[in-house]
Amino acid sequence: MSKHSISHSGRRLLSRRNFLQDTSNGLGAIAITYLLNSQGSLSAQNKQVAIRPDIDPQKPLAARTPHFVPKAKKVLVIFCSGGFSHVDSWDYKPELIRRHNQPMPGASDLITFQGAQGNLIQSPYTFKPRGESGKYISDLVPNLAELADDMCFIHSMTALKNTHGPAENQMNTGFALDGFPSMGAWISYALGTENNNLPAFVCIPDPRGVPQSGPNNWSNGFLPAVFQGAPFNASKPIYNLAKPTGISRDDDLATHDFLQFMNDKHLEKFPDDTELSARVSSYELAAKMQLSVPDISDL
């Protein structure tokens, strides 16, 4: 079969990039597709372990058995919205050097937000092969360049939008539109957490200001709110964590005990009220965090 006998949509799928984009549409979509697949009919090692997590409404963040033995226990994502350009750091573009100060091909068909389309500019930094791999990295990041053989670089990714907000959404949720769960929310939903004293998903926004898409970067989207990220701050890790001035420890404990009594009575009357159970779990976690957060938030 010749390529020209395939429909336009079919030809798009011949490209690996377009295939992944059209069939999964990003990390968030990959996660939901994977979790909803067969509702537990598939498992890499144990046929009794469901891929779709079995979540206890009263303990929604309890650790859950993964469908295979994981290699990583923790994941740290450093997302630099508006950071330095990839073509100035570790994405060597010889063609950009050859086309320096020339108009960008197809520029007349582009729509710009501010002013006319400028010419192409080569990077002002010098690129050199680094490590045994010979990976080209610029002098802009000399310390990272020394670790070239220890890092994995992905150069095949593209964004659907060239504005910060929608592109941030796509990076962290898989979709350019608002309202979809972030990577951390999906991971918390799928695996829970083994730490009972801290949130399953923590985010540390830049103290100078949050990204343009704001809390969408760590949002729970359409998942229950318990799976959203807990924002930490360098100077004040968690807002409203400490007791108000004038409230003694005894008063605080008495209030806690009374609320627990009222919640228990409510659950006896309405045992299927999962929202209250989740809210109680959140407040119990907050009480534990009063002791744990000061020890771990000194960055």
Automatic annotation (TrEMBL):
InterPro entries, per database record? DUF1501, TAT_signal
Q: Which PROSITE patterns does the entry link to?
A: TAT
Full protein name:
Uncharacterized protein
Which source organism? marine metagenome
